[in-house]
Amino acid sequence: MTARDGAEGAGGGPAATHEEAPGPAADRPATKPTAASRTTLSHIMTASDTNLLGTVHGGVIMKLVDDAAGAVAGRHSGGPAVTASMDEMVFLEPVRVGDLVHVRAQVNWTGRSSMEVGVRVLAERWNESTPATQVGTAYLVFAAVDEHGRPRPVPQVVPETERDRRRYQEAQIRRTHRLARRRAIKELRERRIADGLDTDD
Ligand SMILES: CC(C)(COP(=O)(O)OP(=O)(O)OC[C@H]1O[C@@H](n2cnc3c(N)ncnc32)[C@H](O)[C@@H]1OP(=O)(O)O)[C@@H](O)C(=O)NCCC(=O)NCCS
Fold it and tell me: Which keywords does UniProt give here (predicted)?
């Protein structure tokens, strides 16, 4: 079951400053507010979702996270988008059979063709009126693609609330670290190959 969660964060306020220029303005579509694509996916956990310990399998939650984030990325970019990476999937509490799990996703940040989607996972007993607790978080990067699977430009996301602006700024930090980590590992591998150390694959 999916439900749009668009009312939250739809207030006014200045657009965030985009420190990284994502590409020439001419080849990019218009901007879109965060609230336009924010989505919640809800699912009741059953016995078929359990691991050997009897709690819900982490992979089941990760699938829901990827599904919700993919819906958000598709809605924001107005077309197909693929998962480029999933990082910082954190499981805070075990999820149990009979839990109603809500997976809340939104675009935190956009580049030229990529979008960071932030996800919060909440759980509540399906038949009790106790408040939901947060059981996990994740950050995924999606790339919008054209009919040939090539990256295509996305609208810049416009965070409109202080919370969304904070999430945008935090996403920029993660983006900087992802790029730096990839560059450092690539350089290490190239150095090892040049030194004749990695020749067995
Ligand atoms: C994701 C994919 C489209 C990237 O293609 P590519 O030829 O490497 O293109 P680029 O290098 O231009 O990357 C496109 C964007 O994705 C980002 N990106 C690519 N790989 C990434 C990664 N591992 N982590 C984070 N961002 C990544 C780039 O930074 C770039 O962002 P920007 O345009 O906003 O600057 C391609 O690798 C792919 O199709 N992967 C398979 C996706 C898939 O099948 N997912 C699972 C099923 S949906």
Answer: Hydrolase
